[in-house]
Structure formats: C-alpha cells, structure tokens
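Two quick folds needed for the group meeting slides. Do the first one here.
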Amino acid sequence: MTIVAEQYQHVIGVDTHAQTHTYAILNAGTGRTAGSATFPTHAAGLARAVTWIQRRSAGKVLVAIEGTGSYGAKLTRTRRAEGIAVCDVRPPRRASRTGKGKSDEIDAVAAAGTALASEAEALAAPRADGIRSALRVLLVARRAIDSRRTGDRNLLTALLRSFDLGIDARKPLTDAQVRAVAAWRARRDDDTPTRTIRAEARRLAASVLDLTRQMEDNHAALTSHVSELARFTGPSCPPSRTAIGTGSATSKARGPLGLSGWPA
C-alpha cells in the first residue's frame, strides 16, 4: 500500500459552504500547515483559489474536499477537469473538535489531515457527476411526486365524501375506485354544478394515476442506479461512504428537501 505522503507533495483541505470555501494547504511530508485562506464560490473566486494554491504548493497536489456532492460539487468538477487529483472526505466528528471550537480553517485542516492519514489506494473518488448525484436527484423528485400524489388523493377523497357521486368513499379509496373515477365521461343529464364537480373529481383521479406512473418510472430508475452503484467496486475513503446521502453530502445540505440545490 502507498501512503498519501509518498504520492503527493501537498494536500489541500477544503471546507465548503454555499458562499465561500476555506482552503488549507498541508505539506505531505511534514504534515505542517503551509497556509489557509477563504474565497468566494463564484467563478472568479474559484480562479483566485487556484492561483493562491499554485503559489503556495509544488509538485503533485491532492485536493481533499468536504462535501463533493453538495456545496463542493462545482469545485470538484473544475479541479478534476484540470487534471488535479480530488478525494471526498467526511467532516470531522464533534469529539475531534473538543477544545478546538468550530471554524472553517480547522475543518479545512482536518479535511487535509484525513486524506493525509489515508492510504492512497483508499481515497474516495468523488462522484459529483455520477451515480450518487443521479440518485440524489431521483430521491428529491420522488418525495415531490409522492407529496403531490398524496395531496390529490386526499382532495379526491374529501370531494367524494362531500358529494354523492356514486362512489363509496367512507373508507380510503382503492386503486380500482380511482381508475373508475378517472374514466368518467360527461353526462348530458347532469346540471352545471354536478358536471363541474364530476370534472374536478375526474381531474384529481387522473392526476393520481399519472403521478403513480411517475413514481413507478422513478422507482425503476432508482433500482437501475442502485444496481449500477452496487457493481462499483472502487476504493472508498475511510470511513466508507457508499451509502446514499450520508456524510457531508447531507450534513451540509440545507436547501429544500434536504439538498443545497441541483448539481450545477
């Protein structure tokens, strides 16, 4: 096994956030911090960070990013596109911060230290543009679809319980009942209010069926990606982060539905 210090001259730890990233440079041979700085996350800020790193490091460089699948996704893509080695690391545990407090610089140094203490073959290759990102997108979409379907089904049940439309809705609606309502057609003998109420019931039932099909398609895509991920046998950075949505990817995400936003 090759240790990181034998393969790289410097390790750059990055503590990522929505508006800024904090960088810390460690000398791989001595473990000493060669510098730290914070830069904005926009394109100009990332370019400034690269210039800063180049001026303070030499030889082969490894970038250890905390949150490659969330706030660090753009940084991960740009560094990899430049041919720079990147690995994914977990945020430091609270116990490891005892007596040190919480600061972005401390976390950036800890990210670099985690990578430096690992064997080179065990570094986690980030998947910001790969299977895990696709799974996160599908899971967010699934929650949204399921929420809409539940809402429409509840509205349909309430409507059928409020008006006598020939459907026994005293118990939760069955799938067969939903399909029956979705198949309704306009009746000539209905007055205008009844025609309107039946049309709304039909719309809600059709929506439930459509959203159910979307859920099925979503499940099929999830199953395919999970199977693909299971076949992936590449190394993982200790502790392992093969589970979806674990570690920094979710602990840093604070946006709607638990994500900081779609990968840019």
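Then this one, please, same format:
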Amino acid sequence: MANLKGLTFEKQIKNAKIRIEARGQSRHNKQDLHLTHSNSLALKRDYYLKSFTEYVTSLKHNEAKLNNYMNNKIISKFLKYKTATLSQKSAINFTRGFSALTDALKNSGVTIIIDKSVFDTHVNFIKKNNEDNQKTENRDIQNIQEVIRELNHIHPSFAALATLQSSLGIRVSEAIELLQNPQIYIKQDNMIHGLVGKGNHKYEPKPLANELIEILKNSETVNYQSYQNALKSMNITSHDMRYTYVKNRIEQLLKSKNYKEALLIVSKEINHHRSKITEYYLSRTSFK
C-alpha cells in the first residue's frame, strides 16, 4: 500500500485515475469493451475526486497527500457538506458512489484507513433526516451555480450548455443548436430570433444577458452524449435545467405578478402552448 504520487492534489488525482484504470485492465486482462459504461464511470470518479479535493483544500490542513484525508472523521463531514442540498435519491447515490471510489483506490494499492460503516451511517442519516419523501420529485437544481462550476472543471463547453439551459429554459437539443450556430439566431438587437422548439414551434424572441452573449461568442462544438454523461455523474439530467428555470422564473415574477400571470409568461418563455404543462413542471419542483 502507498500514498498517491504527486506534489499537488491535481497530480494526485491523475495518479488515482491511472491506478484505478490500470487495476481494472489488469483484473480483466484486457481493455474495457463497454466504453459507454467505462466513460460514465470515469466521469463520476473524476467528479468525486475533484469534489473531495475542493473540500479538503478549504480545510487548510498541512497534510500533503489526498488519500490521508480519507478517514472516517473527514469523510463523514465531507458527505454531510456535499449532500446537504441534494434530494434523498441523489444524496444516497453520491454516498454510494464515493464509497465505491474508496474501494477502487484501496484495490489499486492506495493507503486509505477508513471504516466502511461511515457510508452506511450516512445513508441512514439521509433517510432519517431528509424530508424529500414527498409526492414532488424536486427536479429543480438547488445549487445550480455549483453544478455549472463542476461542469466547467470537466469541460468548459458543458458549463456553457448548462448556463444556456438554466438561463433560457430551453431543451438540451435547442441549447446545442444555439451554441453551435449563434450567427443564425442572434440579431443586432442581442435577441434570439427563430429558435425552433419541440413540435416545430418557434420560441418568441428572447433577450440575451451579456454573460450569455460572451458564451455564444466563444462557443465550441459540444458532444451531446458526453454532456449527458457529465450530468449523470452528478445525478442530474439535462431536463432538470428546464425545471430549474421554471421554478426560479416563477418565483421571480411573483414579486410583481399574480400566479396566473406568472404562469402564462413562463409558459410562453419555454414554448409551452398550455399553461397546465408548465404547472405540471412546477409541481415537480421544490416550489411552495
């Protein structure tokens, strides 16, 4: 057993991924042929490692090796911190996923002194204390800016796509079209014109904030499946961005409009021709 190699946490993360990958190939005596599953798992591990690194960096301790932070006390605090704003399902998935990561590191020869019961204890804690066992699914993303920041670590184009979706309320296919062909839709008035949605229905012209204009100016090709895999590694779907927009926009409008007016406005903004559909979206968020 040994510590992760590298003078910085960034280099230690790379070493961790190399060790785990080498262990997997050695165990099967061949390259993993299930590339989709393999890539998805690699994205999850990368997310777990970077999340843990950010947390331990904030502790400002003197320990130089990332694996030495993986003890019961710190892991327990990290899990409570990281899952505090997640739904019950997402929190449990994150906990189990991080547990699997520590197993993979141990099996690759990395020194980790941890009692596995810490993960079971946290899962029980989630089940007991989480009040998310309601009929609503809470599809909106509570910590959207943190999610965008995490996506930026994986690939800047993923963060750009998530920003467009959550800021404009558009579907992932529409966001990709806009990101890859901004010259078609962005006019001199800095508005989006002619974007086609589901059912071949065009969106009404949408104003663009300066942040979104900059994103579109510096846009690059993005792979749909890679983006979906990145979101999946955080237990999110691309359509959750649309739920997030609906919930946040309704709450914003209610400061100056009544509920019915707000619902009609948001329905037009997200290209719903029936406000009942938008209301159904809202019922599946944390809106109260």
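Slide caption for protein two: The chain has 14 helices and two strands.
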